[in-house]
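User: My instructor asked us to take a sequence, write out its structure as tokens, and then describe one feature of it. I'm not sure where to start. Here is the sequence I was given:
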Amino acid sequence: MERTLITLTGSTQATLIDQDIAHIGRVMRPSLLGDLGGPILPAAYWRKRLHQLLDTGQLSHAQLYGVDSLLLQLDQFEASAQPALDELPPTTAMPLRPVHAVTAYPHI
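Assistant: Let's start with the prediction itself. The structure tokens for your sequence are:
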């Protein structure tokens, strides 16, 4: 089976790039925030995706602005990210005292 190379017209490629930028704008932050297990997709993944868009070399001014804005958001997120639990210094809190049983009816 022979593969045929499909070339996109300028407007089709611009539309796909617009859709990709919009998609990244919607999902990047929730993905970085993740859950208790950490980010769903790391910052390096999003940075790579954004640089791939820049590497197409066919971005309009508005598209460049969108990608640049997302890269700045990514930089801000990385600068303010909380350290991972294993990077935190050991706690110096007082050890827990034993809990004494308290009766519900002290007069008994």
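For the description part of your assignment, you could build on this observation: The mean pLDDT is 81. Try explaining in your own words what that tells you about the chain.
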